[in-house]
């Protein structure tokens, strides 16, 4: 997969550092957690967000009604949302299932305790 970041990099060294970090990152479906950056796949690109820019992370569950030939039901889509300090959504990435979402938040909480997990109350 070709590595194309969100922000223009200042030097080639930065791109090499990011590539090394991405290859060593822990994978959760479309998401990978590096030591300093949050990586996610967006179509044919891999984008990143530095953990220093993330203030809050939460899970968004979207229920989608399904119709089949004989019955109907609801499909739950699991998403992770990262927000900045100004409460702007930096990204929303879909996850394969609830189990991977919980494991992802556990890993974020363990490695980056400064990031608030969950919705504001």
SSE diagram, text form:
Elements: H1 12-24, E1 26-28, E2 31-33, E3 37-42, E4 45-50, E5 56-67, E6 72-83, E7 89-95, H2 98-111, E8 116-117
Parallel strand pairs: 5-8
Antiparallel strand pairs: 1-2, 2-3, 3-4, 5-6, 6-7
Secondary-structure class: alpha+beta
Quick one: biggest sheet? 4 strands, antiparallel
Order of helices and strands: HEEEEEEEHE
The largest beta-sheet arranges its strands as: 1-2-3-4
Number of helices: 2
Strand content: 35-45%
Q: Over the alpha carbons, how many angstroms does the gyration radius reach? A: 16 Å
Enumerate the spans where pLDDT stays under 50 for 5 or more consecutive residues.
6-10
Strand tally:
8
Shape: globular
How would you characterize this protein structure?
The chain is an alpha+beta fold and 121 residues long. The protein is built from two helices and eight strands, in the order αβββββββαβ.
List keywords for this structure.
4-stranded mixed sheet, globular, 121 residues, 4-stranded antiparallel sheet
Quick overview of this protein structure:
This protein is 22% helix and 42% strand. It is an alpha+beta fold and 121 residues long. The strands form 2 sheets. Strands 1-2-3-4 form a 4-stranded antiparallel β-sheet, with helices on both faces. It has a 4-stranded mixed β-sheet with strand order 7-6-5-8, covered by helices on one side.
